[in-house]
Each structure stands twice: as structure tokens, then as C-alpha cells.
Amino acid sequence: MKETAKIILDGKTYELPVIIGSEGEKAVDIRKFKQETGCITYDPGFGSTGSCKSSITFMDGEKGILRYRGIPIEQLAEKSTFVETAYLLINGALPNSHELNQIRVHLNDYSMVHEDMQDFFKNYPRASHPMGILSAMVNALRSFYPELLTTEETLSATFLRLLSKVRTLAAMSYKISRGHKVIYPRQNYTYCANFLNMMFDSPVRHYEINEDLVRALNIFWILHADHEQNCSTAAVRVVGSGQVNIYAAISAGIAALWGPLHGGANQAVIHMLENITTNGGDVNWAINKAKDRNDPFRLMGFGHRVYKTYDPRAKIMKKMCDVVLSNLTKADPLLDIARKLEEAALKDDYCVDHNLYPNVDFYSGIVLRAMGIPTTMFPVMFAIGRLPGWISQWKESIDDPDWRLSRPRQVYTGPTKIDYIPLEKRK
Ligand code: SDX
Q1: Which of 283, 288, 305, 356 to mutate for ligand 1's pocket (most ligand atoms within 8 Å of CB)?
Q2: Positions of E strands within 33-117
Q3: 1: pLDDT confidence band, cut at 50, 70 and 90?
């Protein structure tokens, strides 16, 4: 017997179908609700609204569960690589050794960007934020690769081109922003090693690949690879629903990720920890500001729309801080502040009542600082990690028979009908 939900509206009972997901999650199917009742639903921020069915990522916010194509994030972080995880998300299964070698070859083949793009960077205002540059450059890729995505082959080539070139573009924008020589990708380096080398190698000082940092970067990007229908993925799907090319949809995702409430939080966390340091290291200063309803200050890196417990990615990222810092025989005073802030927040009634636990962004900045990544590039690092997720979600949307142009409705609260007032009669 199909499960249904009943709604009584204006004295009339409407019965709506209930959809049940593979993990037992339930959704009331309201697709016919407007035409049957003349009514719409209201859900700013879409906290209670499902935009699609998806088989890519499963999250359980109460239990702190995250799985990509059914595989727990903890196992992928421990055993997989970012390239392998990207393949899993996009193709639905882990690659065999032949498939893995194939994608490695293609990622190397596609790693260069058109020389003309360097002129774009050089003419970009120097103080530009790397996320604005990345969003623009990804959009520009369409002009260099205008072929239509009509076959599995052209689709796959485009996905690999995006995965490979976004990494090159990010490193290139960093080098050019510092007036340094651009370092080209190398055929004999793996995906993550290549990125670190393009970022930090230079004609005057050879960058020694540190395998522990390469491993840490793989884990960092695995942890960021997908997260079901978050703000930037929703942007990719909404923009993609107009049937625009994938480069424009991904460019919109980068723009959506940039905000400090979303992927820009990792940068904002560092600024917050530095502020706490300036305020004598008093973590309660930050917690009290966050509790003050007249103060817009928020504990950056805390809280989540879905997780109402510790973000499983934050647990892994926290452990990585120790590994990366000890490997570099480095200490970071902000890590001590971060730990103290977490400890105080987990004991604070307001934070506990509002489910303010560390999310993926809270410790990620410490890991990136240890790698030598500049703070302004932290959201870019998130974007490179999230790219396979955006690609897989875009691909799933264009293959989805239920998918249609995204066009939400509204509850109008403006003036009812009034007539035009000629200029001479206006006060
Ligand atoms: C990411 O969606 C995803 O999956 C995102 C992401 C991904 O992988 O794609 O996980 C990545 O974006 C992680 C989140 C990074 N952002 C931050 O760390 C910024 C700080 N966090 C918050 O701004 C906030 O927690 C959000 C935006 C993340 C979630 O906010 P919600 O679900 O919209 O909750 P809300 O803003 O409606 O707040 C509910 C209450 C409010 O208090 P009341 O008015 O009810 O008394 O909780 C309070 C808020 O003031 N609150 C916070 C807070 N977060 C929520 N108070 C202080 N500090 C915070 N961080």
C-alpha cells in the first residue's frame, strides 16, 4: 500500500503521495499541490524542501553520517585518493586499475590551459579575490572548448578537462598574483603533487614534494568532494536546469561557494581565530559575541543546516592538523586557540542548544596554513575539492526524468492594485 500524507485546506482533504528513499527518509510529493489546491508551500532557504532524488551522497545530520555512493567518508579518507573519489562520485563506482590509469593519463593530457588565458590573469586587478578570478576563468573555458556535449565521450572529456584545468588555473592565479613565474604541470606528478608543485616550485628554489602533504591534500579534497544539495551544488543544479553549458553552471557554483556562510567560512575562521588572539586569546569573548543577539558576529566554522552533531569531516580534519603540523615540525598558535574555542563551545549551553558543533571549515584552515596555502585561497581549495561533486550532481540532473527548469514561486506581500501617478501629481 503506497504511503500518503493528508492536508486539509479550506475544509477539503488532499491526499499526497509519500516518496521513501533507500535510507528510509520520507518526502511528501507536492508536485501537483499547486494545480490541485491553488496553494504553494513556503520554505525560505529550502530547509524542509527536497529539490531532487539523488544517489550520489547520503548524509544523516542527527548521527553525523556522510557516505559517497554508499562508502563512508571515513573509509575514503583513510584508503582512497582524490582522483579515485572523483571517479566514484561522477561514475557511480570505484575505478578498476585500467580505468584509474586511463583517468590519470587524461588528467595529465588536459592539465595545461590555453596560453591566452595568462593574459586574462595579468589584466585582472591585482587585489581581486581568487574566487572571483576562478569563477570568471572557468566560465571562460567554454570559449576555448565550445564543442557540444552530445556523447558520453565528450562529456567525460569535459569532466576530466574541468578537474584538471581548475587545479592549474588556481595555481596560475596564485603565481601571477604574486608576480611570480607560472609553473607548468608535470606529467610525472600525481594530481595533488602537481598542484603543490605548481603552487610552490620556482626557478630559484626547487620545491621538494612532501608525500605526507600530498596525502593530506588528497584527504582534504576527499572530505570536500560532495555534500548533497548544499548552497553551491543547488546553484549548479539551478543554473544547469536552464540547459546552459556546464562551465557556466560550475562558475555559478564557485560564486555561490565564495560566501562566508558557505565555502568562504574557512577563510573567515582564520580571521576569527586571529581576532581572538588579538583579544588576548579569550575564546569566551567570541562565544559571548556570538550569543549577543544585537551582534551579527557568528562563530565561523560552527553550526550546520544539516548536521546537528559533530560534522564527521571536522573530526578527520582535526586529526589531520596534528599529522601535518608534526610532519612539518611546525606549531600553529591558532590551533591551540581553535582547540580551546571548541572545548568552550561544546560546554556552552547556547552552543549546545543551537547545535553549534565544528563543521568542515573549522579546522581546514589550520591544515591549509600548514601547507603554505595563503588564506585568500582557502575557498579556492574548497572549490577544487567540490568540483567532482558539482560535476556528478550536474550530470545526475541532466539524466533525471523528473528534472525541469527550476522556477520557485513566492508569497506576494507588496501593494495591491494602484494606478500610475503622473509626475506633476506626485508629492
Ligand atoms: C559549509 O550545506 C552544506 O552542506 C554546507 C557545507 C558543504 O560541505 O557544502 O557543509 C559547507 O558551508 C559549512 C558551513 C560553513 N559556514 C559557517 O561555518 C558559518 C557559520 N555558521 C552559520 O552561519 C550557520 O550555522 C549556517 C549558515 C552554517 C547554518 O545556519 P542555519 O541552518 O541557516 O541556521 P540559522 O542561521 O537559521 O541559525 C539558527 C540559530 C540562530 O539563532 P536563533 O535566532 O534561533 O536564536 O542558530 C544560531 C542563529 O543565530 N546560529 C549561530 C551560528 N549558526 C547558527 N549562532 C552563532 N554562531 C553560529 N555559527
Answers
A1: 305
A2: 57-60, 65-68, 71-72
A3: confident
Residues carrying an active site annotation: 304, 361
From its phi and psi, is residue 113 left (phi > 0), alpha (psi between -120 and 50) or beta? beta
From the CB of 303, is ligand 1 less than 6 Å away?
yes
Give the domain 4-65 fold: Rubrerythrin, domain 2 (2.20.28)
**Domain residue spans of the chain:** 4-65
Atom 11 in ligand 1: residue holding the nearest Cα: 262
Nearest CA to ligand 1 atom 23: 261
For residues 345-363, give the mean pLDDT: 96
Average pLDDT for the chain: 95
> Cβ(90)–Cβ(388) under 8 Å?
yes
Does the beta carbon of 85 sit less than 6 angstroms from any atom of ligand 1? no
198: number of Cβ within 10 Å: 23
**How many residues are there in the chain?**
427
Instruction: Taking residues 376-399, report their average pLDDT.
Output: 97
pTM of the model: 0.96
